[in-house]
Amino acid sequence: MGRCGVVFAALFMEGEAGARSGATVVRDALFRVVLARGVRLTTDLDHLPLHAAPGWRMHVTRRGELTLEWPHFQPLLADAVLDVPGNWVEVAAGPGVVLVFVGSGFGLREGESGGRGHAATQVRRAAETGALAAGAVSFTASA
């Protein structure tokens, strides 16, 4: 993802959780939680904040295990092995920042697009409809 000729690494997350009342699935649970923890509502992908969100940090080990810390006593992701492009770590390490996008309905899970189109289009639509949170997260990688 580029801005002013600078390329940034990005992490897209969408989540769902079972509601406490039973089998109901809450598709925007992760979205609501990250908004409450300092990542901002984003309605315009062309004007993203590039200052690091307070309390958010990301680290990747040499083995490719990613930990995403946030203002909570446990990490949001801990030692997760993600399928990222080959140069993702180097791109993130350059500016020391990763852009994190959180919402629902992106169609990121295999076979979930349901004919709605490309994931990038879905992310833009989520932003335009007020269903996307985004923020810059400081990034470090083990040497």
Outline the structure in words.
This protein has 143 residues and is an alpha+beta fold. It has three helices and eleven strands. Strands 3, 6, 7, 8, 9, 10 and 11 form a seven-stranded mixed β-sheet that branches. A two-stranded antiparallel ribbon has the order 1-2. A hairpin with a 4-residue loop joins strand 7 and strand 8. 26% of the residues are buried.
**Unreliable stretches covering 5 or more consecutive residues:** none
What's the gyration radius in Å? 15 Å
Series of secondary-structure elements, N-terminal to C-terminal: EEEEEHEEEEHEHE
How many β strands by DSSP? 11
Task: Name the shape in a single word.
Answer: globular
Oligomer: single chain
Number of helices: 3
| Helical percentage | 10-25%
Mean pLDDT: 83
Portion in beta strands: 35-45%
Q: N-to-C terminal Cα separation, in Å?
A: 24 Å
Structural class determined from secondary elements? alpha+beta
Sheet having the most strands:
7 strands, mixed
List the SSEs and their pairings.
Elements: E1 2-3, E2 6-7, E3 9-14, E4 17-18, E5 25-26, H1 29-36, E6 40-41, E7 52-60, E8 65-69, E9 77-81, H2 88-93, E10 97-103, H3 119-128, E11 132-141
